[in-house]
């Protein structure tokens, strides 16, 4: 008999859960629970419900933030950035992380302004 765990899900259990719902996107929950091995069918079903609610909240937040016009950080000295040689610019991965942060965080505009001021100094 398998001893089922209780409490918070481990990263490994969640990883197995994700594999299970990829394999069985519409169920049955019993099959997903068999892939996880350490959770009951009811625990798996509840975790799935909470996971889908979390995804829906994230998508709604993203949709709301996309409705607002995104404003890039603007400073009177931004022309300095235009004059910088490409080798002085941050790597592309850093720039992409910065853009994602701007889209995801409500207070990122303030942080971006501070970051830009530091670059210009």
Task: Summarize model confidence as the mean pLDDT.
Answer: 74
Low-confidence stretches: 74-81
Number of structural domains:
2
Q: What is the global morphology?
A: elongated
The biggest beta sheet is recorded as:
none
Strand content: under 5%
Class from secondary-structure proportions:
mainly alpha
End-to-end C-alpha gap: 66 Å
- What is the succession of H and E elements? HHHHHH
- How many beta-strand segments? 0
The share of residues in helices is 55-70%
Q: What's the number of helices?
A: 6
Backbone CA Rg: 22 Å
Search tags:
121 residues; mainly alpha; 2 domains; 6 helices
Description:
By secondary structure, the chain is mostly helical. The protein folds into 2 domains: 11-67, no CATH class; 79-120, no CATH class. It contains 6 helices and no strands. It is elongated and about 55 Å long. Residues 1-52 form the Myb-like domain. Pfam families: Myb_DNA-binding. Residues 1-56 form the HTH myb-type domain.
């Amino acid at each position: 008999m398998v001893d089922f765990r209780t409490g918070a899900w481990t990263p490994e259990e969640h990883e197995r859960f994700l594999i299970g719902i990829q394999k069985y996107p519409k169920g049955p929950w019993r099959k997903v629970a068999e892939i996880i091995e350490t959770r009951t069918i009811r625990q798996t079903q509840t975790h799935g419900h909470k996971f889908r609610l979390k995804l829906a909240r994230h998508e709604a937040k993203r949709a709301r933030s996309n409705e607002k016009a995104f404003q890039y950080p603007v400073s009177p000295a931004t022309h300095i950035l235009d004059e910088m040689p490409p080798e002085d610019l941050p790597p592309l991965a850093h720039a992409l992380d910065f853009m994602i942060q701007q889209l995801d965080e409500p207070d990122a505009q303030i942080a971006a302004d501070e970051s830009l001021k530091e670059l210009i100094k």
